[in-house]
Amino acid sequence: MAWSTREIAELAGTSLRAVRHYHEIGLVAEPERRANGYKQYGVAHLVRLLRIKRLTDLGFSLTQIAAMGEADDHPEEALRTLDAELSATIERLQRARVELGLILRQSVPTDLPPDLAPVAAEGQMSEADRSLVVVLSRVLGPQGLQSYADMLQNLPQDPVAAEFDSLPADTGETVRQDLAERLVPYFRALHSENPTLRDAGADAPHGANFAQDTVDKALNDVYNPAQLDVMRRLRPLLREAKHAGEVRGVS
């Protein structure tokens, strides 16, 4: 029994181009030729082509198939490795489907992690805050990110915080100082209700210092000069308020 290249390709359920490529890379041996110069394929070639097709359909690359050789009809180790890879892929795709479902149901932004996306969808974050959270999601570890998620999902609506979000870049010094002072109670309450924020960088993949440096750069990029000045004025005010509270025996 002898088949032409076209016939063997049809029997194996593959293409002429694929058969020729297998010859080029040494995956299938070249058959003998008839007197007229045409190739003549036998059963061994068909079996080999069917095996290659079966393995590629399962997900093996041609390089992996070549490494198996021709003698191993049941490459158990390679099959188990592929099974583990497929299991990981299925898990990743299932997670992706869950996230897609959330995005579609709640019309949430695609640049935020699932725990934080609903907050943005509800309009509780300014564009600058949202950009900062995107950065945080890249530098914080799971625990640190969860701390921010917990805070944002229970963020109180405060008109003073809204003033900060809409503060013009050319706001005068007096207004900036006044706003910083009026923000102290708001931020003290946030810190009191979310104590884990103090150690948000503890499990950062690249370390707390790297996370803080990245966040500082992001702050300077997403907030305007007046807002940044209010933040600078707010830090010593918070320290003073904390010290005064400790003196009075109040946390």
From TrEMBL:
Q: Which GO terms describe its molecular function?
A: DNA binding; DNA-binding transcription factor activity
* UniProt cross-references to InterPro entries, sorted A to Z: DNA-bd_dom_put_sf (IPR009061), MerR-type_HTH_dom (IPR000551), MerR_fam (IPR047057)
In terms of Pfam families, this protein maps to: MerR_1 (PF13411)
Boundaries of every HTH merR-type domain copy:
2-71
**Gene3D superfamilies per the record?**
1.10.1660.10
Key words, A-Z: DNA-binding
Q: What is this protein called?
A: MerR family transcriptional regulator
Origin species: Amycolatopsis antarctica
